[in-house]
Amino acid sequence: MSVYEYTTSNTGLEYDVYDKPSVGKSIVLGIQNILTSFGGIVAVPLSIAGIAGLSIADTAYIVSAALLASGIASIMQSKGFGPKNYRVGIGLPTVMGTDFGFVPAANVVINSMGGGLPAYFGGAILGGILEFILSHFVEPLMKIFTPIVTGTVITLMGLSMMPVAFDWIGGGFGNPNYGDPIYLIIAVTVLLVVLFLNRYGKGMASSAAVLIGMVVGYIISIPFGLVDFSKVAEAYWFKLPEIGRFGIDFNIKYSIPFIAGYLVTIIETVGVMQTLGEVTYTELTGKDMAAGVRADALGSMVGPLLGSGPVQSFSQNVGLIPLTKCGSRFVAIITGILLIVISFCPKFATIISIMPECVLGGASIVMFGTVAVSGIKTISKVRYTNRNMLIVASALGIGLGVTFRPAILEQLPGVLSSLFSSGLSAGTVVALVLSAILKEEEESKPELE
């Protein structure tokens, strides 16, 4: 049975997939989702703006476009539509956003190949079409996404994000005051608020623990001069995106640098979908996974048309589900609507964007850690044979190694460099390959303790 037919009961969630919290509570939880993902959504367009040498006005445009594209894609992925065997969107609570995995391809297309932003948008759309085609082959591939593989990938997904969380705690990578004790104090305060409210809070206080923790951290940051409200005063109250502002170049050569990125996206999206199934206690089929990949692909075609980049399902928001005890896709749809509204209001978006990174870092420890624990729970249900131990050890070892020392693979040829560009993708590839080539042990052989 699929997500469209089946959701378990007695899950421990306050709201299951098909439940609808009140609009007020959904908005609060939606804002919490946005706070969690906002940095990731706007970081990529800011990077692209730097690569392309854009003006402040053009940079503001592509940031708004990224918010709009993320909102539309989140609704598509969370709601799902189309006939049963060709659905687009997995129908689980998902937040979508622009993906850093495509930044290297953007640099090649914009600068090395000299195509500029029109080539970036055109190449991304053509790559999205390829991903849409490949989505039809996801279901057969699910045979190798066994529990030992998916559990390892989910664990690695959470663990590999910890360096990011700690960079945020330190004030952000490249910050001249990186590691300032003020940053650490604020992050620890946010962490403690989230922990105690989630553990001992009742009702909304428990569900919105992450949001409340971030608000507390935001307020504490103000007297320390970490929040610059002058940027808010300079921003517009309302502004519509200008569709087609830079143009689009559909030359096939510009799609080539994106191929590896989209292959990695498929692998990582399947991992996110598996994690969503775990934390929402939902049984997923290969068709569901294919529907999720198709939504990624369609979102990656719509995004560049709006002036943004390719999108992907965000893993950080998955960690909110066990913490908030809310697996409602209605909340994710509200999140998408809020993102669209924010894209039309640069002033409100700026208020969120000036939040100190140490605030997000304090909350991220629990969120990313929760994802890792979900993977450990999956692995714990598998027989720990010598084969399975080798798969887990190798995938985690290589995945975390690449996460800590990514420069070690920079000399690899283009496709391999892209395929192993992140610890998550590297560990996933290793888990899949070893699962395929290492034979299952005979039943008579003893399990490892």
UniProtKB/TrEMBL annotation:
Record-level Gene Ontology MF annotations: xanthine transmembrane transporter activity
Top-rank taxon, per record: Bacteria
Keywords linked to the UniProt accession: Cell membrane, Membrane, Transmembrane, Transmembrane helix, Transport
Coiled-coil annotated residue ranges, if any: none
Location in the cell: Cell membrane
Pfam families the UniProt entry points to: Xan_ur_permease
Membrane-spanning intervals of the chain: 34-54, 60-76, 88-110, 116-137, 144-166, 178-197, 209-227, 254-273, 330-353, 359-376, 388-408, 414-438
InterPro entries: NCS2, UacT-like, Xan_ur_permease
Membrane disposition: Multi-pass membrane protein
Family, similarity comment: Belongs to the nucleobase:cation symporter-2 (NCS2) (TC 2.A.40) family.
Xref: NCBIfam families: ncs2, NCS2_1, pbuX
Protein name: Purine permease
